[in-house]
User: Fold this.
Amino acid sequence: MTETTPLHAMHVELGARMVPFAGYEMPVQYPGGIMTEHKHTRSAAGLFDVSHMGQITLTGPNRVSALESLMPVDIESLKPGQQRYAFFTNDAGGILDDMMVTNRGDDLLLVVNAACKEDDLKHLQTRIGTQCDITHHTDRALLALQGPLAVNVLRTIAPDVANLEFMQASRAEIAGESCYVSRSGYTGEDGFEISMTNEACEAVARALLEFDEVLPIGLGARDSLRLEAGLCLYGHDIDTQTTPVEANLRWALSRARRVDGDRPGGYPGSDVIATQLETGVSSKRVGIQPAGRAPVREGAILTDATGATVGRVTSGGFGPSVDGPVAMGYVNTEMSETGSELGAIVRGKTLPVTVAKLPFSPHRYKR
Amino acid sequence: MSDPKFTDDHEWARMDDGSVVTVGITAFAQDQLGEVVFVELPKVGSSVGQGDEAAVVESVKAAGEVKSPVSGEIVAVNEALVDNPALVNEDPVGEGWFYKVKVEDDSEFASLMEQTAYDQFVEGLA
Assistant:
């Protein structure tokens, strides 16, 4: 059974091509096309319907310690109105899902991947269901307004949000509707994510689309934007078989939760992750820059000069802002230095690629 | 020059004269793919069989292949697509052609779908 978001009729009205994604019928692109939508987001502002994502809150006095028992991330130091990138780990240190966690003062808000949300809920209930109250807010929708002009647009209808910095959040009224707004997103650009009730979603979306600067953006450009920004897509670049260390997400492993931190370990797979931090990993996620014009896509095998397999591409395609193909994937650590020359097997041919620094398109967050 | 005929893989083919057929992808195919960013063309002088993957066409999102509607020898390729793959979107059945095949006879070409049949086929996919 395919679900729809509260904006389904609006997407169709705007001429979107709808495709099944994570159990939802979602817009992959509007009539302007992925290239136009991508570039518009980098130069102006794009509105994304991300209502398929799960919004889960944890309440109760033990919510912080409960959540910390599931992730290698410092939740205790998160001040009210602060957000942090986090992930659930399994006993092998693999990633069960990645998410944003926000301390909203009275609760912790988790924004999780659509494809993982049911499993996340089970995981939360099983592991910490007796320590805090877990609520899945199916009554709420989520919009993302991303791009350098997002702040100009949003400040004209919600002046206070302009004061937020990257990874800060607050309540705000938009189009007469009560919203919860964070300055974050998944495009590499400055921008906001706006949570509101399902009923309020269309009014907020239409108020934003009123601005000439704002175009609706589909999943196609969302993917090319996050790929250029070097951000992981769950189920592709990270999954239960990859640890945060292998995924090159060391920066997200909080000091306080490391071996020498204030609250070390105590989450699934902490021993594996501690060992990997200490002794290194055999393969890791890197950027892959194809030398030619041919896109190198997910699944392509990476080889060394002798033709031996040294890795695989986990995300790849064409980067409209880079104006060329971009990819990322896992390679053996000894081949993972920036500039390493590898081959990528595409349709039986070995194409030259090099290991590249991520992101391909510089992050432009408001710090 | 004949009217174009079509395959159910969304290629078009047009008989230029009695023996050379020009091949491309249809307006429907380019619309489904989205903005074309890369094209790989066959080698002039190589031979291609009917239904063989003769060329590659990639958009931002997806990779596709051009299956040859007819068999024969490749006698020309549209080099303009290499530098400007967007021609496939702008003029799929004109400037966006992929390659030309010299055919032995016109039997394969004759068996392809006429415009009206292809239009009905596409309508049936909606």
Notes: The two ends of chain A are 42 Å apart (CA to CA). DSSP finds eight helices and 19 strands in chain A. The helical segments of chain A are 8-13, 34-43, 63-68, 117-128, 150-157, 198-209, 219-228, 270-279. The mean pLDDT of chain A is 97.
